[in-house]
Design a protein that fits this description.
two-stranded antiparallel ribbon, mainly alpha, 69% helix, single chain
C-alpha cells in the first residue's frame, strides 16, 4: 500500500508540475495576473521545490532498507556518475540565463518597466550543442547512481517516466515556439544521449 501511495504522490507531482508550466495554463495565468505575471516563474519554482521536498521527505520515512547499494569497485563508478551528473547540471544551468530560469529576470524587467516577453533564441553552443536536455540527463544519472531503498527505486522509476514523457510535451511546445529552427536543431543534437547523432 505504501508503494502505491509513493507512486501516486510522485505522479500527482508530475501532473501538477506539467500543468502549471503548460502553455495553456501559463497563458491563462498571464491574462489574469497581467503585469504581475512577472512573478509567476519564481512562484512556480518555489512551489515546485517545496512540493518536491515534501514528497521526498515523506517517501524517506516509509522505507529504510537499501535494495541497491554500491560496493567496491562499483563505488568508483557511482562517484564518477554522481560527479558527472553534478557537473552537467551546473554547466547546463549556466548555459541558460539563470536569472530568467529561476524567475528573477522577469521581476527585474518589471521593476525597470521592460518587456520580458521578448522572443527566446535556441542556444546551440557548448553543452546544448551536445544534448538538448542536459538537466534531464543529469537528473536521471544522479537518481540512478544513488544507494536506494524500494521506495527510492519506485520514485526513480516514476520520475524517469515523467522526464521521458515530459520531454515529448516540451519538444512539442518548442516546435510551436521556434518552428523549423528547432526541428533542424533536433535533427542534429540528440535529446538525452550525447554523440548519438552525426
Amino acid at each position: 500500500m505504501k508503494y502505491l501511495i509513493i507512486a501516486l504522490l510522485w505522479s500527482v507531482f508530475g501532473l501538477i508540475h506539467s500543468l502549471l508550466i503548460s502553455v495553456r495554463f501559463s497563458n491563462w495565468a498571464n491574462r489574469i495576473m497581467r503585469q504581475y505575471f512577472a512573478f509567476y516563474r519564481l512562484t512556480y519554482n518555489l512551489f515546485s521545490l517545496i512540493l518536491f521536498a515534501s514528497i521526498l521527505s515523506f517517501t524517506r520515512t516509509l522505507d529504510s532498507e537499501l535494495v541497491i547499494q554500491f560496493s567496491p569497485p562499483w563505488t568508483i563508478i557511482q562517484s564518477i556518475s554522481l560527479l558527472t551528473s553534478c557537473v552537467v547540471m551546473i554547466w547546463a544551468f549556466l548555459s541558460y540565463d539563470y536569472l530568467e530560469f529561476v524567475g528573477i529576470r522577469q521581476i527585474i524587467d518589471l521593476s525597470k518597466k521592460k518587456d520580458s516577453n521578448h522572443p527566446k533564441t535556441i542556444i546551440k553552443k557548448g553543452l546544448l550543442g551536445i544534448v538538448r536536455h542536459p538537466m534531464y540527463l543529469a537528473t536521471i544519472i544522479f537518481m540512478w547512481s544513488l544507494d536506494s531503498t524500494r521506495a527510492d527505486v519506485l520514485t526513480h522509476i516514476v520520475l524517469t517516466i515523467y522526464i521521458l514523457v515530459g520531454i515529448i510535451f516540451e519538444e512539442r511546445k518548442l516546435v510551436k515556439q521556434h518552428g523549423t529552427v528547432y526541428i533542424e536543431y533536433r535533427k542534429v543534437v540528440p535529446a538525452l544521449i550525447p554523440f548519438t547523432k552525426k
